[in-house]
Amino acid sequence: MKIKTSTIVWTFIWCWFMGVTVFSIGFGAVFPSLNRIAQPFVCLDGRMELAKDVYNPYPGNTITTITWYCVEEASGTQTELGIFPMVLYAGTIYGLLFFLLVFAGMLFNANRRPGTAMRTSRAQMVNASRRNSLEKLNTAEDSLSRMMELKNLRDSNLISEKEFEEKRAQILKDL
What we know:
- Helices cover 64% and strands 16% of the residues.
- By secondary structure, it is α+β, with helices and mostly antiparallel strands.
- The chain folds into 2 domains: 113 residues, no CATH class; 53 residues, no CATH class.
- A 3-stranded antiparallel sheet has the order 1-2-3, with no helix packed on it.
- A hairpin with a 5-residue loop joins strand 2 and strand 3.
- The relative contact order is 0.11.
């Protein structure tokens, strides 16, 4: 079965969105190191480092902030990274990987579905054709015998011409 181009495009958009929102933002908040995958794109000449700060503004309340920095290898200077470029790059990578996984599943599913894959063998098609022909033949033979019987009833004056025509029309309609 052929998968429609529009289905592939919408699946790609959905996978990209899921990569950004679920994988990069969602899982990235729980497991921040997942966003290190964006390092080659957001930190070209250095490495990404994560800084966690924990605050207790008042008793019973703890706030944790996470800040990503790009540390240049040569000078050691830290530059704070914006969350959105990092999340977009990491999410795009995860979205592409997710799309490849979903697309492989779509291809697998399209090739195994009996209703859409059209895996009917030639023998099955011939048998179905023979069954249809036999059913039509039986119907035609039945209609022919009914017409003969109807004609005999009219010729024997057991039914009127009007009754004959009505029944004849009904038999032809049933064909």
